[in-house]
Amino acid sequence: MSTSKPAQTNSKPIKTPCIGVCSTGIGDSVCRGCKRFSHEVIHWNGYTQNEKRFVDKRLSDFLSQACSHKCTVTDRELLKWQLETQLVRYNEEHDEYCWLFQLLKAGASQIDDPTKYGFRVHPTWSDLSLIELRDKIDEDFWILSTAHYDRYLATPDLFEEAKR
């Protein structure tokens, strides 16, 4: 008799990552606002929750990577407390680096001491204001999404011809 429990599936609906700044309508393959691929923006409402979860996971992984390259969350609970105290919307299912980006989006200009918010900026990036840092993280997030699109969707399979 097995005592292991079946894996729990997250039944919480995945919200659209749209932030109302879509650039796919002007020809971008990757939206500069939400970082989804143009076909994901177009077909989002037709996706299943699992398909949406897959896209959400990719986006949160890329955002986390971009943010953790420039900052370190030193106190996850303090960061979470600050988000809740400041009434900053964040997805609790994402990691603390995605939370940090939401904090920077909401109030980078109002943060004087990052340690009071549970993070520090890496020395390489400490000469930037938090607004500039936030914009750099967002740019790197877009670059990661675009590179993924170019590698896996825009570039034809070079080996497909050899199979024919």
Give the structure's gist in a few sentences:
The protein is mainly alpha-helical and 164 residues long.
Characteristics:
164 residues; single chain; mainly alpha; two-stranded antiparallel sheet
What does this entry look like structurally?
This protein is mostly helical and 164 residues long. It has one domain (29-152). The protein is 47% helix and 4% strand. It is built from six helices and two strands, in the order H-H-E-H-H-E-H-H. It has helices at 38-43, 49-68, 76-85, 96-107, 130-154, 160-163, and strands at residues 71-73, 119-121. A two-stranded antiparallel ribbon has the order 1-2. Helix 2 (49-68) crosses helix 4 (96-107). The chain is globular and about 50 Å long. 24% of the residues are buried. Residues 4-8 have low confidence and may be disordered.
Enumerate the spans where pLDDT stays under 50 for 5 or more consecutive residues.
4-8
Strand order of the largest sheet: 1-2
Mean pLDDT figure: 91
Shape: globular
Our Rg estimate from Cα atoms comes to 18 Å
Number of DSSP helical runs: 6
Q: Give the tally of β-strands.
A: 2
Biggest β-sheet: count, sense, barrel? 2 strands, antiparallel
Output the structural class. Answer: mainly alpha
The percentage of residues in β strands lies in under 5%
Helix content: 40-55%
Number of domains: 1
Taken in chain order, the helices and strands follow as HHEHHEHH
State the separation between the terminal residues, measured CA to CA: 50 Å
